[in-house]
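Quarterly update from the structural biology core.
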Amino acid sequence: NRDRKRTKEKERNTMVQIKTTYTTKQPVDIDAPAERVIDFLLDVQQCSKCYPFVDKVEKVDTSNNDTTFRWTMQERRVGSIQMKATHISKYQRANNTVTWVNVSGGNMSSTGKFVITTINNAKCQVIAESTVETDMEIPKLLVDFASAMGQREMAQSWDAYLISIKKTVEAGQVVKVDPTEDVVVKDKTFETVRLQEDLRTKNYQTMVSDYYDIVTETYQSGWGNHFHFAPFSSSTESLESAVTRLEHTIADQARITKDSHVLDVGCGVGGPTLEIAKYTGCKIRGLNITKSQVAICNDRAKKLGLSDRASFDHGDAMAMPYPDNTFDVITFFDSTCHMPDKQAFVKECYRVLKPGGRLSGSDWLQCEKPTEKDIVQFIEPICAHHSCPHLASLDSYRSMMEKAGFYVHIAMDQRQCGDILRNWEILDHKTINTFKALPKGSVDPTIEMMISGAIALSEGARHGAFILGRFLATKDVPRVVVA
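Predicted structure, tokenized:
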């Protein structure tokens, strides 16, 4: 099982080669003779102290005439991948140019040159060019973003490197300058948010379908077939284990058995639906507002040999295409957040459930009584990037269920069950800041939308404005009234 989990996680990553280049935008003036600058650049071990993120630089051959050096960079986090990069380069001088070429032996390569131009006996200018190629295993979701991220990080690092070289040569001692990381934040007003919410509510059917038509393939390749989040029980639990465990918990609490007739609302590509069918042996239907996903679900059910027990329908969960008293259980996994009228959904669940039927599921929520700042800064970006008209709270869900006639057994914040922040661990703070500062249009639009959405979830959850909820409610058995 452990090997299978590792294989699943590896399938969500891919090995890519990231190539980044740097050319000085304008020459750097150094108040020192050209020869002193050249001597410093050729003292590679000393000069390397000016470069950001270096662990150590050492000669490959200890002989005095050797000019080949192994650079070992600091171990760094790139998305969810811990990376230790090394490269070996040979340095040489030709007139007023210091060049380096790559030598095999590292997991990255580096080539480039410094060109030093004399201005007078006490001043010179330096320009630099460099190309770096790195092989790395990264989440598939970040593949199209990685090149742009690497390019920007290299520009920041080299700009800092050249300023450090200037200050060090002029001061006669190492002066290290950290790279700058400007962050772009878009401002919205509370009134603008309300207008956007109204627009999403009005167009929710086409909005949600269009959204999933765009993102489904990327979600499947980068996240799997289970389009929902879950609390992680430990720092080593895999994504597959966490989502499956939540699906089993929701099925167990709803007392689903092989004799149950179940409806899974907002079934995505059928991940939870088919898992519950396998786990319990029940007869289950999936309901989905996105036609293209219904076709995927039916195809997956056939391939898994579950077509006799699992079927899928196209329809709106706020106006379900089923008769009254049809199902024993209704499940939902992070799908009701896409519905503008959540009370209508709950009423429909009550209608199509049999007396004593159970409603069991999880959903995206906002915190209780969010401030205007919470809504503008955290909730609105989540809704805008994930096609959610608006988010409800834990108490509002409980109230809607009770108003429809349900008895609510569970309405809980899933942070009580484990770590929800690990759902977004592929995006560390540096990745987030780098992405925000990238020029508009530098990343594939779909990837840009999806990473922006993941950032919104991560920041909302860290702040506490966004949470994951879990619910269990029972449709009351009608009382017999004696005249």
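The chain has two domains: 14-171, 190-475.
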